């Protein structure tokens, strides 16, 4: 059974690739960003606290993230794509412990790479559908459009402004890049060039997963 960690800087294409992987390989997709945004939209006290953290571009505390995640992992028998988790070395260690407890293991770690100068333009042009979650890249000066797939309203994430993105990139360098070192010698770490069309990136990811499954 495949259990995949999908890594990459903000805007690398983790969400887009996860959707494709989920469909082709029949996996269960866990995006910790989506889990947190769902909690925010419930309007709970916890949600308000989380919004304060995310909207500044900071990471939510490890302990909270890990306990939220464990409940979700326990709820599925399918192979899993971990999208946006782990984002710290402490989370990577906690994930290993949790997987052992649940008799599972991480079978592939895929890092989608992207040149630094691409990140800001990708993120500031990003729009997401409120209804179905589809991601688009639009001309930032153009008026809001509607989703081609379902007609839903497109919105810009509160943490997708140029200023927030700069901070998120710093956080990524400080907190998340060490996770790459954590996995690099594990024998399951692979890099894929994210500076290509989504279909080209997906072709590379599929190759990695199909080879890993042999
Ligand atoms: P994403 O949708 O993956 O870009 O995540 C959006 C935001 O959610 C991040 O900038 C963090 O504030 C928060 N977040 C998502 N995943 C994690 C995680 N594993 N640990 C801590 N914070 C997270």
Helix-residue proportion: 40-55%
Order of helices and strands: EHEHHHEHEHEEEHEH
- How large a portion of the residues is in β-strands, by DSSP E? 15-25%
Bound molecules: adenosine monophosphate
> What structural class results from the helix and strand content?
alpha/beta
CATH class category label: Alpha Beta
Provide the low-confidence segments as ranges. none
Q: How many domains, in number, for the residues?
A: 1
Number of distinct helices: 8
CATH topology: Rossmann fold
Shape: globular
Classified in CATH, the superfamily is: P-loop containing nucleotide triphosphate hydrolases
Strand order of the largest sheet: 2-3-1-4-8
Mind telling me the C-alpha Rg? Answer: 17 Å
By CATH, the architecture is named 3-Layer(aba) Sandwich
Largest sheet: 5 strands, parallel
Let me know the average pLDDT: 93
> Total number of β-strand segments?
8
- Give the terminus-to-terminus CA distance: 11 Å
Supply database-style keywords.
binds adenosine monophosphate; 50% helix; alpha/beta; 214 residues; 5-stranded parallel β-sheet; Rossmann fold; 8 strands; 8 helices
How would you describe this protein?
It is a single chain. This protein has 214 residues and is α/β, with parallel strands linked by helices. The protein has one domain (3-114, 170-212): 3-Layer(aba) Sandwich (Rossmann fold). The protein has eight helices and eight strands. The strands form two sheets. A five-stranded parallel sheet has the order 2-3-1-4-8, with helices on both faces. The mean pLDDT is 93. The structure holds adenosine monophosphate.
């Amino acid at each position: 059974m495949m259990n995949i960690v999908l890594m990459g800087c903000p805007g690398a294409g983790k969400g887009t690739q996860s959707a494709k992987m989920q469909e082709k390989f029949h996996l269960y997709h866990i995006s910790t960003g989506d889990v947190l945004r769902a909690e925010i939209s419930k309007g709970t006290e916890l949600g308000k606290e989380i919004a304060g953290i995310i909207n500044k571009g900071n990471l939510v505390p490890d302990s909270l993230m890990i306990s939220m995640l464990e409940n979700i992992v326990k709820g599925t028998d399918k192979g899993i794509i971990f999208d946006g988790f782990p984002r710290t070395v402490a989370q990577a260690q906690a994930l290993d412990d949790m997987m052992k407890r649940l008799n599972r293991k991480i079978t592939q770690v895929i890092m989608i790479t992207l040149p630094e100068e691409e990140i800001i333009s990708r993120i500031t042009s990003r729009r997401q559908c409120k209804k179905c979650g589809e991601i688009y890249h639009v001309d930032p000066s153009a008026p809001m459009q509607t989703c081609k797939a379902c007609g839903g309203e497109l919105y810009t994430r509160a943490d997708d402004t140029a200023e927030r993105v700069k901070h998120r990139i710093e956080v990524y360098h400080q907190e998340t890049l060490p996770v790459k070192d954590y996995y690099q010698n594990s024998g399951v770490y692979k890099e894929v060039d994210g500076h290509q069309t989504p279909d080209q990136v997906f072709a590379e990811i599929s190759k990695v997963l199909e080879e890993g499954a042999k």
